Amino acid sequence: MNGYVPTFRVVINDIRKSIASGQLKEGDKLPSLPELAAQHDCSIGTVRRAIEHLQITGELQGRQGKGTYVTGKLFDGS
């Protein structure tokens, strides 16, 4: 195995680290998709996929026309 990690997984891990470290707290709004894509040097689609995953796990919540927010729910890995 060469240790390759798909970019959307890197985005997921970075957002989780920001939450765990307290840089992002419950109720905080995430940067826009274009901003996150620029930060990670990837496409908006890749960032969208990562955010959708974190919404499914309950860690983020999207609000139509408002943005994406941290829920405060921590990923437990199970």
Count up the helices: 3
Taken as a percent bin, the fraction of beta residues is 5-15%
Percent helix range: 40-55%
Q: What is Rg? A: 12 Å
Going by helix content, strand content and strand pairing, the class is: mainly alpha
State the order of secondary-structure elements, H for helix, E for strand. HHHEE
Low-pLDDT runs: none
The strand line-up of the biggest sheet is 1-2
General shape = globular
Q: Please provide the count of β strands.
A: 2
Biggest sheet architecture: 2 strands, antiparallel
Task: Explain what this protein looks like in three dimensions.
- 45% of the residues lie in helices and 10% in strands.
- The protein is built from three helices and two strands.
- It has a two-stranded antiparallel ribbon with strand order 1-2.
- α2 crosses α3 (44-56).
- The longest helix is centred in the N-terminal third of the chain and has 14 residues, at 7-20.
- The two termini are 24 Å apart.
- The model has no long low-confidence stretch (mean pLDDT 92).
Structural features:
78 residues, mainly alpha, 3 helices, two-stranded antiparallel ribbon, single chain
Task: Compile the SSE list and pairings.
Layout: H1 7-20, H2 33-40, H3 44-56, E1 60-63, E2 67-70
Antiparallel strand pairs: 1-2
Helix pairs in contact: 1-3, 2-3
